[in-house]
Amino acid sequence: MKKIHILGVGCAKCKKLVQHAEQAAKELGIDYELEKVTDITQIMNFGIAMTPGLVVDGKVKTSGKLPSVEEVKKLLSQ
Question: Residue 10 contacts by C-beta under 8 Å, 6 or more apart in sequence?
Answer without folding.
Answer: 38
